[in-house]
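FAQ

Q: What does a record look like?
A: Structure on top, sequence underneath. For example:
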């Protein structure tokens, strides 16, 4: 009791603090891999900003716009946002309504963690199935030949097909990550 009061006096909380720069321990090795991969997509956002700045300079100072800048920045930003959802799962930093969650005791909170993670795993798996159907249309012709869906613009990159494949991959990995969280929360792993 005196130790808890001493911790409160010195600003320490009763619950163990986790490293804000790392995934939660329950995410396991997959969570660490996801977290480390985040830098690639953060650099993609920086590259998209640099491309936009270059496009503004080329368009308004030299009257020589490019045909590829707009679609490239949309693609880079899109895959970063898709990966961001997966990244948030591994760090338990997604948005949640905590009105009830924070008011319940830790044992019940653990039960909520298991249930929420399981429901999220099922949801992610169902969305992955829908993405699989979408990828089938975006990556294959009716005769079964592999050909990615294209944008239809003057540049005509295969970004729409690539984005749909990336969405499928992210949703599958997200379902696996939520399943790992479900198991580790149920086991009480810290």
């Amino acid at each position: 009791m005196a130790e808890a009061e001493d911790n409160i006096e010195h600003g320490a909380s009763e619950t163990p603090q986790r490293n804000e720069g790392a995934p939660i321990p329950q995410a396991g090795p997959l969570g660490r891999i996801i977290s480390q991969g985040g830098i690639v997509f953060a650099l993609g956002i920086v590259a998209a900003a640099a491309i936009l700045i270059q496009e503004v300079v080329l368009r308004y100072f030299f009257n020589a716009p490019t045909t590829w800048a707009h679609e490239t920045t949309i693609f880079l930003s899109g895959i970063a946002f898709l990966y961001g959802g997966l990244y948030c799962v591994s760090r338990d930093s997604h948005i949640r309504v905590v009105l009830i969650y924070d008011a319940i005791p830790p044992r019940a909170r653990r039960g909520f963690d298991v249930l929420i993670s399981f429901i999220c795993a099922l949801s992610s798996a169902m969305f992955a199935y829908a993405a699989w159907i979408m990828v089938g249309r975006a990556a294959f012709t009716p005769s079964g030949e592999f050909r990615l869906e294209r944008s239809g613009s003057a540049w005509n990159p295969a970004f729409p097909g690539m984005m749909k494949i990336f969405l499928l991959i992210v949703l599958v990995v997200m379902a696996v990550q939520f399943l790992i969280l479900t198991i580790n929360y149920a086991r009480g792993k810290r």
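Q: Is there anything notable about this one?
A: The chain has a mean pLDDT of 89.
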